[in-house]
Amino acid sequence: RAKKNLSQNYEFYSSEMEEQMAGRLALLRTLRQDFSQDKLQLWYQPQIALDTNKVIGMEALLRWPTEQGGFISPAVFIPLAEYSGLIVEIGAWVIQQACQQIKLLQSHGLMDLRIAVNVSMPQFRNPLFVQSVIDCIERFGVAPELLELEITESVVMDEPKMVIDALNRLKSYGIKVAIDDFGIGFSSLSYLQQLPLDRIKVDRAFIRDLAEPNGTVIAETIINLGKKLGLATIAEGIETVEQAEVVRAMGCEEVQGFLYAKPMPTAALLEFLRANKA
Ligand code: C2E
Ligand code: MG
Ligand code: MG
Ligand code: MG
């Protein structure tokens, strides 16, 4: 009887898993098709200097529109793209779009604005990755310090030596490097000094905690750590004036979050930047 139950359970889970797998494969097929048909979009979320309230740059974020007028969350399709390797091609497109966008902003008189792009592990595994980023920058004639690569702790921990080596080469060319979602991964504290970083992004989770009792400890520690290492710190996911004031008091210089702006397509970004400049 127990055996029967077990096998029933097994069948139940197995068919559910099969269904899930089939669903993911179908989604991946659609992603591949939509990407090849130029249907992915790159949106931009402004990053603001707390002392001047001016935009200093933006983070590029992928958007995958559906036929129904909505979007499929990057939390759903980025892991699929990473797992399948498609992220290598998509990521190259993202970097190219970002370089093009920097030139576009400059043609509108919006100079010195940096664009940060997220980079996944499979991109680093490509031995031509570093050169392809440099080639892209040269092809568009972009100042390298206007491009920033965001990597997460998990990317570093996966293959520290290889990633540190690639980042060193990018860094010596002038490209900026930020560590994203800092503090939520398995701590890469031991690698922090070896990483050629410019900026630490305090994860949204610690900003959300700021209102809790003892909720300020982690954010403050990360900001102090950044300071001691001579790095810029940016707080992600700022949604309230109170959160902005708390991180400012802690010595954080830069912020990004819905309080200031949500990610937006190019036309809206241009308007936002013009208004912010004035
Ligand atoms: P991330 O790099 O940590 O990006 C920040 C995420 O926080 C974005 O979610 C952004 O829309 C969201 N966010 C910003 N401010 C706020 C706020 O005040 N409140 C809240 N609730 N959320 C805020 P998004 O666009 O859904 O992207 C999710 C993740 O997907 C990104 O996290 C990044 O890991 C990944 N991703 C997005 N675009 C790319 C890409 O081009 N390449 C790669 N490899 N990953 C990407
Ligand atoms: Mg990011
Ligand atoms: Mg982040
Ligand atoms: Mg994230």
Automatic annotation (TrEMBL):
Residues 24-277 form the EAL domain. This is EAL domain-containing protein. The chain holds residues 463 to 740 of 740 of the full protein.
